[in-house]
Amino acid sequence: MMNTSQAISGPQYADAVATLSGLFGTPLELEDLEAMALPAENGPLGLLARIPLLQDDVAKLIAIARDFGSPKAGVIELNKAFCRLFLGAGGPMSAPPYESAYLGSGRLFQAPAGEMAKLLREQCLQPVEGFPEAPDHLVVELSLLEESLRLAGVSEDKADIATVRSLHERLKSWVPAFEKACGDFDRTGFYACAARLLGRLLNEPLPCPSAPIAA
């Protein structure tokens, strides 16, 4: 039986966030899928597999990666799925990776995009060059959560911890709807499983430093 009682450390949580973020930013390359089909401890999902509550879904993700017949065929199918789900090619049967898509009218570039742009400026950060997505893209929010977790773990500063908690609550407010859309519309099961992994991780207690947060 899987052990789910082991607490996740701050570095583990940040590593897991970084690994999952990498699955939603760009389509997988051939070498990515080949590596993902390796045993968990030897592949890019190894950091996730060390977290007991994620192990079952990591095993499922690896099984899906192996089940395409060949890595080349798998990359073709996963790239189609990526375009349908995340780039709008699926029309209403898509899973937009933007917070704005799941709030209010569902139009992009709503208030969450402005809020995230402001938060990035406050942290003196910006998306990497060549990543032309809105500031409330899932990868941007996850990357900022990862960076903030690592910073707060070192500084134990109240403001840094507050940023971590705010980002965590922000993601928890809309990722369940994103996860459901992936589950409903992903024909490969790969991105549905990855989104489920993300949802499980976000539902775990946040490993913030113990410094108190001012009310």
TrEMBL record:
PANTHER family per record: CHAPERONE PROTEIN TORD, CHAPERONE PROTEIN YCDY
Domain of life from the UniProt record: Bacteria
Name of the protein this chain belongs to: Molecular chaperone TorD
Keywords, alphabetical: Chaperone
Organism encoding this protein: Hoeflea olei
Stored Pfam families: Nitrate_red_del (PF02613)
